[in-house]
Design brief:
heterodimer; A: 110 residues; mainly beta; 6-stranded mixed beta sheet; 5-stranded antiparallel beta sheet; 11 strands; 0% helix; 58% strand; B: 114 residues
């Protein structure tokens, strides 16, 4: 069974810092990997989707990389802002389900 | 606006009283799914549907039923709710699982079973 791990579980940084969130998965036979953002009391918002054949995807200040062979993905956030404070979830698609990590809770302080 | 709509958003009820959480999407998606989110356990899939009249169990299906009579709707049914089903529930949809389309999530339904 696919297991997805996210490190760190929580992170606090001052505004303006660049930061990296990590995600690892145990089975490299994946279709794609998605990064989501979850705000308190809200649903999940898809940030980036990386296909299994791709190495990275970028959207604005976000860049996600995928190394399928080593079972790792990173989400890079440039020039962090207080509005980036949320929980970030990594999810791996191996067919008919998304397997989620438990998330990294990010706090960006002014 | 493309969206996944869940109702109700919040519900407090008692053990054994049947309830249904509705989910509707307006994006003509084939694939729909239900997840529950619990502290320390993350999101786990309950049931999914690849298309109309096609449903299958996820990782934690016990105590739940689903149906997919129409493409846009995928209700989650708790026939006899118990306190261990107290959780935050999410419905999601996409064009086809395994494709390179992102999944869209509803805003969640917080269920409390007393």
């Amino acid at each position: 069974k696919q297991e997805v791990t996210q490190i760190p579980a929580a992170l606090s940084v001052p505004e303006g810092e660049n930061l990296v969130l990590n995600c690892s998965f145990t089975d490299s036979a994946i279709y794609n990997l998605q990064w989501f953002r979850q705000d308190p009391g809200k649903g999940l918002t898809s940030l980036l989707l990386i296909q299994s054949s791709q190495r990275e995807q970028t959207s604005g200040r976000l860049n996600a990389s995928l190394d399928k062979s080593s079972g790792r993905s990173t989400l890079y956030i440039a020039a962090s802002q207080p509005g980036d404070s949320a929980t970030y979830l990594c999810a791996v698609s191996s067919g008919y389900a998304l397997n989620f990590g438990k998330g990294t809770s990010l706090l960006v302080t002014p | 606006e493309a969206q996944v709509t869940q109702n109700p958003r919040y519900l407090i009820t008692v053990t054994g009283k049947k309830l249904t959480v509705t989910c509707s999407q307006n994006m003509n998606h084939e694939y729909m799914s239900w997840y529950r989110q619990d502290p320390g356990l993350g999101l786990r899939q309950i049931y999914y549907s690849m298309n109309v009249e096609v449903t299958d169990k996820g990782d934690v299906p016990e105590g739940y039923k689903v149906s997919r009579k129409e493409k846009r709707n995928f209700p989650l049914i708790l026939e006899s709710p118990s306190p261990n089903q107290t959780s935050l529930y999410f419905c999601a949809s996409s064009h086809r699982e395994g494709s390179n389309q992102p999944q869209h999530f509803g805003d969640g339904t917080r269920l409390s079973i007393l």
